[in-house]
Amino acid sequence: MVAAVVALVPLVGVAGPASAVDGQWYHETLGTAQVHAAGHRGQGVTVAVIDASITPSLPMLQGADVQIMNGGRSLCKDPDTGANLPATGEALTFSTSHGSNVVATIVGTGAGFDGQPSVGGIAPDATVKLYADGDPAIDRSSTCAGLSDAIVQAVGDGAKIISIQRSGPIDPWTRQTVAWALNQGVIIVASLPAQPGSLSSVGELNASVGVQAVGMDGRVLGEGTTQGLYPVRKTTVAAPGVNILLQGDLSTHDWTPTRIGQGTSFAAPITAGVLAVVWSAHPEATPNQLLQVLVAHAIPGDPDKVGHGTVNLLGMIADEPTGYPDVNPLIEQEARFDGDLSAADIAGAFSPDPFATAPPATVSPSPDSSGTAGSGSTNGVPGWVWVVVAVVAVLLGAGVVVAVIVIARRGRGGTV
After folding, report:
1. CA 106 → CA 66, 114, 310, 347, distances in Å?
2. CA 412: distance to chain centroid?
3. CATH of 12-323, one of 3.20.20.70, 3.40.50.200, 2.40.110.10, 3.30.930.10
4. pLDDT tens, 337-373?
5. Which of 93, 247, 341, 406 is most open to solvent, judged by the fewest CB atoms within 10 Å of its CB?
6. Three-state DSSP class for residue 65
7. pLDDT tens digits, residue range 173-225?
8. DSSP label at residue 357
């Protein structure tokens, strides 16, 4: 595997203890208690989470349906042995903190250490399938180049909602994989870049759900601070992600206390959890119809900051998704920047070969958001070219097999 450094969307911690009331204000804003009391808790819905790594022994995850995929191993490999790294770790590192808190925002039980409160999930009865894309021993914001492999596995495992919390260069192979997942009707929810240096996000691609983070006051992450708003190329919706309760103190590497943090890393899984809850209330709805109610009931704001608006669980769940057309409302016909997907790219996407080795990330997204790519192109390469490449690869592989057989028979004095 060719390694590439990509940043997890930052977990920004604030020193000092946190209270459950302060850190889980969004449950009241979204009305989750009311929705849960009505029996809609995400049951029967699976959310695939692609994140760094996890500590499954934490109280907030005990009793939650969290399945660690890929045989319990990370998609990252040990550079020395080539073996897959573990997906789990007991020590509190940036990697385990990120993955554990992200998963808990979806299915967390709310139970902390010594009877203290912790992170409670939006969809506590949903199933989370975790595809680890990090090293649990790493205490910094980096992952490996396993995103495309994780998406392929998640779609193959039947996921209809995928939550991705990372940003970085999107190579052509990952872009093609995203196109195929969208072609299969999968809802891809992804956190948007939150600081300079986060080069791009899957959430900025056509038809995906790019999520921005907002606080209790409705202000977008970074708004009114010296950091300011980080410009992104597309925002679909906004969701709670500022002043969020998190488990563990990163400064002391102690899991026991809680803290207040922020980041689009939490806004994305909260949005995925909202979709799971609505789907549990309306199991006959299609993924496209879920997206229809997501945008129809989003609370409006500045489109440049919150896209269609802020997610509105109560409005979504009170509606009837099956009354909407079974059409993805997020698909735009033309690509909006160099490296974006067009509607033709998505419609013509083919299944990635699970036995193929993903090409190295040699193409970086253009920093100029005003650039455009023609219809049917993937990072400037027409979609049909990928099909031709795949066919040629298969034919070459078959030719190699025939040649080996011929040489082997000739070596034994046989005939062809």
Report:
1. 10, 22, 18, 30
2. 54
3. 3.40.50.200
4. 889 999 999 999 988 765 544 433 322 222 222 223 3
5. 406
6. strand
7. 899 999 999 999 999 999 998 766 555 899 999 999 999 999 999 999 988 77
8. P
